[in-house]
């Protein structure tokens, strides 16, 4: 039985789990990847166009002041993500993963296209950055339910021994978004030429809206997660707990999710939102050359994600996660030093210092998905993920630029990233268990030494909800 968006919002889901294989498997992966692609495409084109947006939406003045304004608005979007996480997490855990994912991509596509239609400072003055902030808030709100829903949806459809591979294939869209954004920006510059600052920069944002429409139609053609169907059959929606119950019963997994995504978020958004500017201002290369180098590295990263996903299926989640965290600590400062040389080959090697740890850290996402039970998985991932992204990831470009401005030391962002990585290494080395083969309805839990067993938590949750 297929599920429409409208029927999902009304609770019209099936309750008989089915195995996802063959053509249906490809549909699930592509449909989930579509929205994840749009999220990263949208956020990437904003970061890549930062220098132009500074001149379009902010008052004429110093370049550094305009960039600080653009990066501040970049971070504003993340302030809305926690609200979106609560909203979409509630829908995803009660009405189904598909309903939440369909609604999130609608809002994301509309707000992205709207940025491409906004007037600039020269036309409406101070209203220009205000309208930009509004659109970014809507982007952030919709993103609050996108990634967490996509990874949940894919893993809950995946065969037990191929969860890592499926999540790795989804992870390709995380890098495909920035890669496509880079290529589209380069294409827009080529098409518009000297008029890029006038209208050429608008083309990527308008294209983002079109891609979102395609993603919506893809999502309307796939089945609901069989794990959600099974969980719903065992525990009706009326017994699902509140946000307070989630925080009370599952606070340890939430802390783990928060630390994990704080680490991943800072590294990812340094790479996407700050490094292109660093390459031009410190490395002294042209923006087009910088974007070309990043495109090549992103394509390499795309090829690595399904490989690391397959490795997690063979050797487990924890070894790769630990190696990735150690890589962040060890490689961050050398990466910045190499990127700052301005030599294309050395810059490429330095960027690998971002790409390799990011690829290895993807194994942690699978572990935290398997820790949580189905009844709270969407919310349990979405809320800590988006809160930490608001605090750490969304502010990473602004903090990086501010540290350089305040200290005059171009390596301060590298020390900041390495410090975040060290905290993640110390916490997650101990607190993330090996979860390979976990039951996705009940969740793996942490073991008796760190948390109640999943069955005990589910019983306690059901008792609390029935009071």
Automatic annotation (TrEMBL):
Residues covered by the Major facilitator superfamily (MFS) profile domain: 28-436
Q: What is its main location?
A: membrane
- Name the GO cellular-component terms: plasma membrane
Could you list this entry's UniProt keywords, alphabetically sorted: Cell membrane, Membrane, Symport, Transmembrane, Transmembrane helix, Transport
Location comes to: Cell membrane
What GO molecular function terms would the record report? symporter activity
Tell me, in a sentence or two, what this protein's role is.
May be a proton symporter involved in the uptake of osmolytes such as proline and glycine betaine.
The name of this protein is: Putative proline/betaine transporter
Q: Which organism is it from?
A: Tsukamurella asaccharolytica
């Amino acid at each position: 039985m297929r599920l429409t968006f409208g029927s999902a919002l009304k609770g019209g889901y099936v309750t008989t789990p089915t195995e996802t294989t063959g053509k249906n498997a490809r549909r699930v992966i592509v449909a989930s990847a579509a929205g994840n692609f749009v999220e990263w495409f949208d956020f990437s084109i904003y970061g890549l166009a930062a220098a132009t947006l500074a001149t379009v939406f902010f008052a004429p003045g110093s370049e550094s002041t305009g960039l600080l304004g653009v990066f501040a608005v970049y971070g504003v979007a993340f302030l809305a993500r926690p609200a979106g996480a609560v909203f979409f997490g509630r829908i995803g855990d009660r009405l189904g993963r598909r309903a939440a994912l369909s609604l999130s991509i609608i809002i994301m596509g509309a707000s992205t296209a709207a940025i491409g239609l906004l007037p600039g400072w020269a036309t409406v003055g101070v209203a220009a950055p205000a309208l930009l902030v509004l659109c970014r808030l809507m982007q952030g709100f919709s993103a609050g339910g996108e990634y967490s829903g996509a990874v949940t949806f894919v893993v809950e459809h995946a065969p037990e021994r191929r969860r890592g591979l499926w999540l790795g294939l989804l992870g390709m869209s995380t890098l495909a978004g920035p890669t496509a954004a880079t290529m589209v920006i380069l294409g827009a510059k080529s098409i518009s030429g000297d008029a890029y600052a006038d209208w050429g920069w608008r083309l990527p944002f308008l294209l983002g809206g079109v891609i979102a429409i395609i993603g919506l139609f893809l999502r309307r053609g796939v089945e609901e997660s069989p794990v959600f169907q099974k969980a719903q059959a065992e525990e009706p929606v009326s017994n699902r707990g509140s946000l307070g119950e989630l925080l009370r019963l599952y606070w340890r997994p939430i802390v783990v999710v928060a630390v994990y995504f704080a680490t991943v978020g800072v590294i990812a958004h340094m790479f996407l939102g700050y490094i292109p500017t660093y390459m031009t201002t410190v490395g002294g290369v042209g923006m087009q050359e910088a974007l070309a180098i990043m495109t090549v590295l992103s394509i390499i990263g795309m090829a690595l994600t399904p490989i690391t996903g397959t490795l997690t299926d063979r050797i487990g989640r924890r070894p790769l996660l630990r190696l990735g965290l150690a890589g962040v600590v060890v490689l961050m400062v050398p990466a910045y030093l190499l990127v700052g040389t301005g030599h294309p080959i050395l810059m490429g090697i330095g960027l690998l210092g971002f790409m390799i740890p990011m690829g290895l850290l993807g194994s942690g996402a699978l572990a935290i998905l398997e820790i949580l039970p189905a009844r709270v998985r969407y919310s349990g991932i979405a809320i800590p993920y988006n809160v930490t992204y608001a605090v750490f990831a969304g502010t990473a470009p602004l903090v990086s630029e501010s540290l350089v401005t305040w200290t005059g030391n171009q390596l301060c962002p590298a020390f900041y990233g390495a410090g975040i990585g060290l905290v993640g290494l110390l916490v997650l080395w101990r607190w993330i268990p090996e979860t390979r083969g976990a039951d996705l309805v009940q969740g793996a839990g942490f073991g008796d030494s760190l948390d109640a067993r999943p069955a005990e938590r589910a019983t306690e949750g059901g008792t609390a909800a029935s009071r």
